[in-house]
Amino acid sequence: MRLNKHYLAFFPALVMVGCTSQQAMQQPNKPVRQGNVQITQTQTIQVKPTPAPVIKPTPAKPSYNSFSDWKSDFSMRAISSGHDAATVRRLLDSAYLNQQVISLDSGQPEFSKMPWEYVDSAVSDGRVSTGKRKFAEQRTYLSQLQSQYGVNAEIIAAIWGMESSYGVVTGNSSIPSSLASLAYDGRRQEFAETQLLSLATLLQRGDVSWSQLDGSWAGGMGQTQFIPDTWLKHGVDGDGNGHRNPWSTGDALASTANYLSNSGWVRGLAPFYEATIPSSFDYTLVGTKQPAARWASMGVDTIADVSLDGNTQMELWLPAGKDGPVLLLSPNFDVIKVYNNSSSYALGVSLLGKALIGQGGLQKSWPRYERPLSTSQVRSLQQRLTSSGYDTKGSDGIVGTNTRNAFQRWQAANGQTPDGFITQRSASSLAGW
User: Fold this and answer.
1) DSSP assignment of 223-249
2) Rounded to an integer, what distance in angstroms lies between the CA atom of residue 243 and that of residue 237?
């Protein structure tokens, strides 16, 4: 990894200054005269403790006897907050309770996926070949968007491919019904109601027509699957026809570029850089963010001959543990996750983007011999970790950041390489299967 030389000059030490609070401070040896005798005494100055913050109770979510009751209540609240009454009523009249949406929202897969399974799907032969053709068709426009917004053309195209197969599959679920069902179910009531209100605004504004209200079961719209509130904030008129329509290719691609740009995209920086690490590497640093220059000083080196700003914060990620690829994630990797807060998704988008412009994928092979845990096994593992002093912050059966971090700490204390990679093999001694 080549670094601008002035970033490698030194690393200032970070000094942690600890302080303690005292409720009383003493000033000794203050002279006091009693008659003809001077007495030295200690004066105590009382310092009042800072009052504890007042914690307001979280209001209970309202419950409804029926879907119709929720509709009536939501309609009243929406209209009283200033939304157009006719639009709100028409929107709700078209909505029906979709139990399948509720099941999909609360359902969990039986087994967690290994990262290579997601990547294999993202860069399938069909998706890549179709994507190359679509990229060629839109090359001039995508280049304009890259120049205007700073977002790599291939990343915009990759998100287009991941979200709707380049505009072919935009969803066939009634968006009003999906969002109303999610709001009535209550698990994500605030989110779903916000999306419904935004959808009403989009209908009034003309971004969305009444005849064009089909999308994903979770409320995604158009060729790059914006949810209504995000389109309201970031949608732009890319084709210049005076409307911002998420089903329009020009508007969808421009809005995707605008959204990523507004979310902090750094011009000229790849989402990730494949790297190597020395045999003596401290694996407890996996998952932490450090300046690129600091990683270089520890022997972490990018495989490609690239020049990185030494101050750029990079996260070291081992998506498949010590035996898989080593990746340095740039801030742009996190930006991609505004679309889908999943590292596997961001990796899939990044690799698809590389494929669309003829670049190769990862050089290090995946350890495909490893097997995932079932949802019930993950839940059991979380309970065992927590009871052993490695708190996973709950046992929901999902391998998230808290669970990986807890497992990594357990590995470090029990003779394993602490790479945080949970598999049937690495977890067997703790879980007992």
Assistant:
1) TTTB-HHHHHHH---SSSSS---TTSH
2) 6
Cα 14 vs. chain centroid, distance in angstroms?
Answer: 29
Report the pLDDT value the prediction gives residue 107, as an integer from 0 to 100.
Answer: 77
First to last CA, the chain: 42
Residue after which a domain boundary falls, among 223, 243, 262: 262
pTM of the predicted model as reported, rounded to 2 decimal places? 0.84
Question: pLDDT tens-digit profile of 29-44?
Answer: 444 444 443 434 444 4
Tokens of 241: 């026809």
Burial 266-275 (b: 16+ CB within 10 A, else e): beebbbbbbb
Tokens representing 203? 């209908």
In the predicted model, what is the mean pLDDT of residues 220-228?
A: 98
Specify the residue for token string 């093999």: 425
Q: Are 96 and 136 in contact (CB under 8 A)?
A: no
Q: Do residues 303 and 243 share a domain?
A: no
Distance CA 6, CA 10 (A): 9
Rounded Cα gap, residues 192 and 197, in angstroms: 9
248 and 289 both lie in a single domain: no
Longest dimension (CA), the chain: 104
* Other CB atoms within 10 Å distance of the CB of residue 162: 23
In terms of Cα–Cα distance, which of 40, 115, 167 is closest to 346? 115
Domain that holds residue 314: 272-329
